[in-house]
Amino acid sequence: MLSANLLLVVCLAYVLFLFVVAYTVDRRAREGRSKWLQSPVIYTLSLSVYCTSWTFYGAVGSAARNGLEFVTIYLGPTIVFIGWWWLLRKLVRIARVHRITSIADLISSRYGKSTALGVIVTMIAVIGTTPYIALQLKALTSSFQVAGMAAGLDAEQGSLSSYASGFWIAVGMAVFTILFGTRNLDANERHHGVVAAIAVEALVKLFALIAVGLYVVFYIGGGPTEIFNNLPKNVLHEENLFSLRWVALTFLSATAIICLPRQFQITVVENVDENHLATASWMFPLYLMLISLFILPIAVVGLTVLPAGSNPDMFVLTLPLSANQDALALFAIIGGFSSATSMVIVACIALSTMVSNHIILPIAISLSDSQSRTSGDLKNLMLVSRRVSIVAILFLGFLYFRLSGSSNALASIGLIAFAGVAQILPSLLGGIFWRSATRIGAITGLLTGFGLWAYTLYLPSFEGSLLMPLSVIENGPWGINLLRPESLMGLTGMDPLIHALFWSLTANVFLFTGISLFGSARPLEQMQAALFINVFHTSAGDQHRFIQRSATAEDLFVLAQSILGADEARTLFNEIAHGQGLKSGMPAATDAFIARLERELAGSVGAASAHAMVSQVASGETISLNELMKIADETAQVMEYSQEVEQKSRQLEITAGQLREANARLKVLDAEKDDFLSQVSHELRTPMTSIRSFSDILIKSGDVTQAQAQRFLSIINEESLRLTRLLDEILDLSILEKGQPKWQLTTHDPEMVLNKALDTQRGLAEQASVEIIRSDITTNVMIYTDADRMSQVYINLISNAIKYKCSDSPWLKVTSSINNNRFQVVIDDNGPGIPHQDKERIFDKFTRGRSQSGNSGAGLGLTISRQIMRNLGGDIEYMERQGPGASFRISLPLDSPL
Amino acid sequence: MANSRNDHNLQQRLREGALVLPVIGFFLLTPPFINVFSIESTLFGIPAIVIYIFVVWSGLIIVSRVLANKLMSESSPEHRESEQEK
Q1: Count of domains in chain B?
Q2: Are the Cβ atoms of B38 and A243 closer than 8 angstroms?
C-alpha cells in the first residue's frame, strides 16, 4: 500500500535532489567547469519539456479515446527537427547574434524593436500558457488523488486535499524557478542549472513511462501480440483517422515546437552551441518515438483490464496500482511529477522574462528619468519584476485550476494552447525569410488571428463559464447565426479545432502578407529585416554602419551600470576602451560602441527596451538608408555577381580568342603592306632615276647634239610611260583587291573572246617568231562575264609566253575545253618554265620570272590576272608538267556566280 | 580546384537533402499516402498501420542522423571561420 506520507517523502526527496543538481551545475558553470554539462545530449534531453504531464498521462487517454491520433503530437516536432538546417539553425543563429531573450523579443526585435509587438506576443504567450500550467497542476493533484484513494483515503478527503496539494506544488515550483531562473540577470539569459535539472527529469519521465509500459505489456497484457489480439473494436479509429484533423494536428504540433514560449526558451535561448542542434535533430525525434512506443499498448490494456468507466488519463498510474505494484506506481508518479514540473519551470522562466522585458520595463522607462538612475537600480527592478512575474503566473495558473478544476474543460487545453501560439508562426517565418514583412502587418495579423482564436476556440472551451455565455456559443451574439463562434460564416460540420485554426490562421496570414505588401517599413525595420534574413552573411557588428548617434560616454556608463551593475559595467567599458586602443579611462562614444552596448543590454532586457533606453541617452539617431540598402542587397548581389562573373569571363575568353586571330591577321597584312610599299618605291625609283639623270644632262650640258637630245627625250618619254603603266597597274590591282571594280557584264562566247585576244598578239608573236598553235575549239557555250577583263587575262598570259621565249623554235599552244561544267583554257609554251618552289610565288606582287629580253613589266600582271579571275568566280593556276616550258590553266564556271 | 568544386556540390546536395527530408516525412505520414497502409492486416499480431508509422519514424531518425553528421563534417571549415569571427 502506498501511504500518503511515503508519497510526500519521496516527492520531497526528489525535489531536493533536483535542487542539488541545479545548484551544483550552476556553480560549476559559473566557475567555467561545465564543459561536459553543455553537451548535445543534455541539450536534447532538455528539449523534452515538450513532453509534459499531458504526454505522460494524457497521451494514453487520447489513445484510448481517439486511437492513433496521439502520434501526431510527436510527428510534427519530428518533422521540424529533421529539417533543422533550414529553420531552427537560423533561429538559433539569429538569437545568438542579436542576443534574443524570448520569442516575444525575437518578433519585436525583427520588426524594428517594436514595443507593441513585444507586448502582443507576451500577452498571447501568457494567455495561452496559464491554462497549460493549470493543466499540469491538475494532472499532478489527480495523480496524488488516485494514489491517495488507493491508499484508502476516501474520495471526499482526496478532493479536499487536491487544492491544497496543488497550492503547495505551485509554491514549490515558484521557489525553484526563482532560485535558479532569476539568480542573476544573465547576459545571455541562459540557466545551466535549470537545464541540467530538466535533463535529469527528462530521463526520469522517459524511464518511468518505459518501465510502466514494459510491465503492462509483458506482465499484465501478455506480450504485444496478445494485446492487439484482444483489441477492442474500433480502438484504432482507422476508418476516419487519417482526415483533415490528422494533418491539422501534425501541423499544430510542428508549430508548437517552434512557437511555444518554453520550447523557444530551451531550443533557441538556452542553446549554447549551434552544433548541438545537429545531434538533437535525430536524438530528439528518437526520444519522442521512445516515449510514444508504449502509449497505445498501455491504453489498450487499460481498456481491456480495468473496469469500464475508469479515467483513461490515469491508466499509467492505475494499471500498476491495480496490479499492486506500489514501487512502479511510485516511479510513475515521480515520472508524471517530472514532466509537469519541468514544463512549469521553463514556462515560468520564459514568461517572466517576457513580462518583465516587454511589459514592466517599458513602463518603468517611460516613468523614470534617465538622469536619476543609480547603479544597478534597473537591474534590481528587473530581478524583482521577474520574481513577481513568476509568482503571479503560477498563482494565475493555480487560480485557473481552482476555478475550472472540476470541469473537464482542462483536458482539451493542450491543443487549444497550441492553436493560440500558432498565431505567432506567420510573423516568425515571415520575419526571418521575407524581407518585406512589416511591423504593421505583423501586428494586424497577430491581433486578428489571436482574436479569432479566442472567439472561436478559447472562450467557447469554457462552456459558458468565462466571458462568453452559452447562448452566444449556441446561437451567436445577438442571435446572429452567421457569427456563431463554432461555425463562423455558417461553416458547419467541422471539428471545432480545425474550424478555429482555419479562420484564425487564414485571417492572420492574409492580413500579415497583404498589409506588408501594401505598406512600407521604417528604416529600423528594414535594417533589422536585412540583419535577420542575412544572418549567415552579415554580423550584428554591421549595425553601427547604419545608425549614427551621439552620446557621452559618461551617460552611457550610467545607463550600463543601472542595468548590468557597477562591476559588470566597468569591466565591459574597460574591455571596449582596451579594444579601442586606449590605455585608461572611458572609451570613445563611437557608433560602433553605442551599437555594441545596445546589443549587450538587449541580452538582459530585450531589444526593444535596450533600444528605448539607449535612445533616451543618445541623441540624433539617423539611419543611413543608402548604407542599409547596400547591405540589404549584398547577399543577393554576391550570388548574382558570381554568376555574372562566370558568364563574363566566358565571353571574355571568346572575345580574346577572336582578338588574337584578328591581330595575327593584321600583323600579316601589315607585313604585306610594308613589303608592297618598299617594292613599289623600288619599282618607281628605277624609271625616276633615269628620267632625272637624262633631264639633268639636257639642262646642264650645253654641248648636247640634236640627235642626242632627241634620244634622251625619247628615253624620258619611255620611262614616263612605264611609270604611268606601273601606276595604272597598281591602281587596277588596288581596285580589284578591294573587290569593287566596275564590271561590264554581258553574255559572250568565250571562244570569241579568246580568239580576239590571240589576234591582238599575233603581230607580237610574229615579231618574236613564236608559233601559235590553237586547238580543240569548243562550240556553242555562252558565259555571262566581262569580256574585256577576260581578254586582259589572256593577253597577259600570251604576252608573257612570248616575252619569256628561250627555245630556238618557240611555240605557244592554246587549248580550250569544257570540263566539269567549267570553261577551261590552257596556255602551254616551251620557254624556261617555272621552278617548282616558285609555283605559287609567281602570283605574288612584283615577282618576275627571269626574262631573256631584260625588259619586263612591274611583275603585277599575274597578280592582276589572278584577282580578275577570282573576282569573276574562276581561277588561274600554274600547272606543272613533264619537259621544259610553262603551262597555265584558266578556268571559269559556266554558270557565272555574278 | 576540382576537388573544392566537388565539395561544394556535395554540400549543396546535402543542404537540399536537409530540405527535402521533412517534406518526405510529411508526405509519408499524412493522408492521402498514409491511407495505403490503413488496412486490416497485421504483422506479428500488430496492426499494419502501427508498424508502418513506427518504421517510417525510425527511418526518418536514421536518415536524419546520417545527414546531420555529414552536414556537420562538411560545413566544419565554415564553422571554424565563424568561430574565429567571434
Answers
A1: 1
A2: no
Under the banding of pLDDT at 50, 70 and 90, the label for residue A154 is: very low
CB < 8 Å to A286, chain B: 61
DSSP structural state of residue B36: G
ipTM of the predicted structure?
Answer: 0.88
DSSP A832-846: ----GGGTTGGGSTT
Chain-chain contact of A225 with B46 (C-beta, under 8 angstroms): yes
| pLDDT in the model for residue B78 | 47
Contacts of B54 in chain A (CB under 8 A): 289, 293
Residue of B43, B60, B75 to mutate, testing the A interface (most A Cβ within 10 Å of its Cβ): B60
Find the chain B residues whose C-beta atoms sit closer than 8 A to any C-beta of A.
15, 18-19, 21-22, 25-26, 29-32, 34-35, 38, 42, 44-47, 49-50, 53-54, 57-58, 60-65, 67-69, 71-72, 79, 85
List of residues 6+ apart from A832 with CB closer than 8 A: A804, A806, A849, A850, A884, A885, A886
Task: Judge contact between A783 and A790, C-beta under 8 A.
Answer: no
What domain range includes position B74?
A: 2-85
When CB atoms are compared, the residue of B35, B47, B60 closest to A78 is B60
pTM exceeds 0.90, yes or no: no
**Most confident by average pLDDT, A462-466, A534-538, A619-623, A800-804:** A800-804
pLDDT tens digits, A307-344:
877 888 888 888 998 888 888 988 998 999 899 889 98
Q: How far apart are CA A631 and CA A527, in angstroms?
A: 9
Comparing A94-103, A207-216, A682-691, the range with the smallest average pLDDT is: A682-691
pLDDT at A240: 72
Question: In whole angstroms, how far apart are CA B62 and each of A76, A575, A744, B14?
Answer: 17, 46, 88, 15
Burial of A619 per CB tally in 10 Å (0-12, 13-18, 19+): exposed
Kind of pairing, strands A771-775 and A875-878? unpaired
Picking from A79, A278, A289, the nearest residue to B26 by CB comes out as: A79
User: How far, in Å, CA of A730 to CA of A736, rounded?
Assistant: 10
- Best of A75, A99, A250 to disrupt the B interface by mutation (most B CBs within 10 Å)? A75
What does the pLDDT look like over A600-624, one tens digit per residue?
Answer: 888 777 788 788 777 777 766 666 6
Cell, residue A217 = 505489456
Residue in the structure block whose three cell numbers are 500577452: A123
> Residue A594: which of A547, A626, A641 has the closest Cα?
A547
pLDDT of A88 reads: 93
Contacts of A274 in chain B (CB under 8 A): 79
- Beta bridge mates, A877: A889
